[in-house]
Design brief:
Elements lengths: L16 E3 L6 E3 L11 E4 L2 E6 L14 H6 L10 H9 L11 E9 L6 E11 L3 E6 L17 E10 L2 E6 L9 E4 L3 E7 L16 E3 L10 E5 L7 E9 L10 E2 L2 E10 L1 H8 L6 E3 L3 E8 L2 H20 L3 H11 L1 E6 L5 E8 L32
Parallel strand pairs: 1-4, 3-5
Antiparallel strand pairs: 2-5, 4-16, 5-14, 6-13, 6-16, 7-8, 8-9, 9-10, 11-12, 11-14, 13-17, 14-15, 17-18, 18-20, 19-20
Helix pairs in contact: 3-4, 4-5
Length: 385
Amino acid sequence: MTFEILQPHTGPIPADVYLPASPETVTWGRLPSRADAPVLTVPAGTTVTIDTVSHEGILEDQGKDPLGYFTGHGVVAASVLDDAVAIAAALSRDPAADGPHVVTGPVRIEGARRGDLLKITVVALQPRVPYGVISNRHGKGALPGELPRGEGTMSVFTPVEDRDGCLVGTLPLTDGGPRVVEFPLAPFLGTMGVAPDSDERPHSVPPSNFGGNIDIKLLTEGSVLYLPVQVDGALAYVGDPHFAQGDGEVALTALEASLRATLRFDVVPRAEALAAFGDVLGPLVETADYLVPTGLDRDLNEAMRACVRAALALIQARWGMSEHLAYAYLSAATDFDISQVVDIVTGVHARIRVADFAAVPAVPATPATPAAAGPQENAPEQDHT
């Protein structure tokens, strides 16, 4: 299998609107706020192909030189992303004050109003390169002060290979050994969010009710993320691309690697959102099989409690189930998974099986009818070559 390197403006671009990653269209270490000008404006209902860039390979402890870093691991120069090189050369961050993540956006969604839900459908996720990195640094992770041993920083270069028609990440049993351990890829965007109602750019690491670095691995192709809109226009952004992650993300990062994401942005007006889900106060995921409310808190126990409360509220609003019966149902039938324990604010998400309520009428979340598409304000040049 020949792997196509998805350099900016090259390769398949499924949507009619394309947003490349560049020093002009990304933030590094901080998330957009209400004060940030949109890099793209689109009507609700628009599908956009967005390039994302992993922070791994551009960070200061890796030399802030992705060309040198990746070629040092055997990657040919033509397979190092040009936008990663440009971002590392043109932008800087304060490692002591800012997060590591490169975030593309913000995108203004016409018609999105505070109190609505922004519905982000993950249409497609294409790996841009056949390699990634798994890292631990800054004394973070589930075992701070214990692992990694020695220097205290770990960056594991991880090639992607084709095994029987499936892409897998590969690891050796010991440094320098044959890559006999393999695990399947399941790409998703760790960061998906909307701007908070503040002029201050949030740190890119801790997630919040506006989304951000939620690291929910269920957000693969075909899934949907609902976010409560904080400011008119929503000002959506995405980043922190992953090829694969285990729930918990215990070593600090997952398999971090750049993705080309095709996303559809819809707006669910507040009245329809309340009827379908109740009052959604934080990120809510929908897959083919599950509704997935979330809980976020610095204390993992409190994040769990918040997730249970969100799940109870969702079941009561959507299906009219009494609170004590919903509590019993969650205990008997719903898995509560740890999204991550390494992003300052920990995350828990519940997987409520929609099929369990197949006999109960539910109100669907109906997006607003998109306005007729007009010219896109600030739209980057369309180049699908």
